[in-house]
Amino acid sequence: MKLHFYLMRDSVSDIEDAVARADLEGYGEAPGPNVPLPFKAKAFVRVRPYFDAPEPIRFISSAFSVDREKYKKTSVSCVVFVETDGRVFVIPFNARGAVAHEDLEPGFGLKVVANSIDPGQLKAVDSLKVDANVIQRRTQLSHNSDMDDFELDTSVNWIQAITGQTAEGAFGGADEPPPGKPRLKTLQGKDALAFTFGEDFARVGEQCRFLLARFREEKYKDKFKFIDEIQFLPYKDPVVPALEEDLRSRLAAFDTDRLHVVYPDPAGEGEADKFKISSGREHVFVEYLSIAQVSDFMERAGIEDYETVRITACDAQDQPVSGKYTLKELLIAELERDGVMYVLSNNAWCRINAQYLAELNAAVDRIADLTGELDLPPMLKNMSVDAYARKYEDADAYKARAAEHIGALKLDRPAFRLPGSQKAEACDLLTEDGRFICVKKMNDSATLSHLFSQGSVTSFLLEINAEYRKTLFSLGAARWPGFELKNKPCFVYAIPTDKPERLSRTLFFFSKVTLLLHEREIVSHGHAAALCKIGIRPVEG
Fold first, then answer.
1. Segments forming the whole domain that contains residue 380
2. Measured by CB atoms within 10 angstroms of the end CB, which terminus of the chain is less buried, N or C?
3. pTM
4. What is the CA radius of gyration of the chain?
5. % of the chain beyond a pLDDT of 90
6. DSSP helix, strand, coil percent of the chain (3-state; round to 5)
């Protein structure tokens, strides 16, 4: 039988406390044991009759003479609590919802599997990639292998669950392996640890004691270090209400530092000409979307609860071209609480490991900063009294002014098409000494993801596509006689911001992760990457 073992948090004092916390309505009293058990355990059973036959029977009974009453069944749920070495385990059968998620040890199964299997015995990996959106996938291999064969960059894809095999006989199984051939046991680990248990119930206590000891080991830190880097919090994690209150307080105080919004996804082929910010009957249309615009709307409309705010992408006639999103669905927030960094993305909170964050910052700091050397002019920002009239200088106007200031060539999206009719944007500014400067405001992580991708894609095309390289050479040679494309060009990410810190420290958390991914790609092509901070100069409206 396949069992799912959950470990309750150490805040659960004993088995009686665990039972008191559980939702056991309808389960009745725990039956007494009929054999002596060498450990504390309680089992609860609930039987519920179905009110009707299963759905397939209901469907065909509309056309055939089928006795629906005959096919009514009962649903049986069981919950088993086991106490060992001061901790309580839960083994549910069709009853996972009986125990609150916040009472369970997150990542218990993941760590046990990582502490138990050989790195080359991985079968499947569940991962999440978080940025402007969340991509969730399960990757399976036809043969057991190590993490490299899954082709998952663990600095970008956070591992949620792993499945692997072990020859350890300590994981319950009554069958003896054939002589000379070890029996491989498949382990699945996320919050729960799942595997086939072939022993009698009397061995469950011993099994739980072994699993607890294995959970406390730290072998995984050598083989699967990424497990500790980031942890997505369950919706009912005790820290989530405090984070929600921090977020609410900051928005009520119009403190938008480290808060950003991503753009709604237009439906079909629609394009957004403007955005509608609304709450009840109050609304406003804005040409670009930012947390500052949302904050201004809330302040003007006297709105204190950000959960009432909705955002919709619209066309030039004010008609919706996207769904209506809650503000929280589009928010990316970075909050620090009790010395720990938390990030909200795609309506989910995650906790960032301090050591991982330090290593991430150090890696970004190592990227060359050309702010002083390039001396790009500041971008203008209209500081009109009318909050909705405050906006940044038009992007094309800024690029033309910057090109003139540093003697660069402004590229108006050269008409070069890739297979499939995709256009390739090389960069925004090309310098005589072969620097490819890509410029975008730090509106949100999605915008920066596009910026970083622009540099790495151009770097790749320069290496593999002779026609693409010829097109860029012709543009440069037409401006500067004797121009040549260097063998090792530099791709510069130029980002306007009014933050006083160096650019590497003002980037959003997920943007730092994405930047390093694309920077590694550029370097792998034999090229170089750099950062450049563009200042902001306020002007009167």
1. 358-539
2. N
3. 0.67
4. 29
5. 38
6. 35, 30, 40
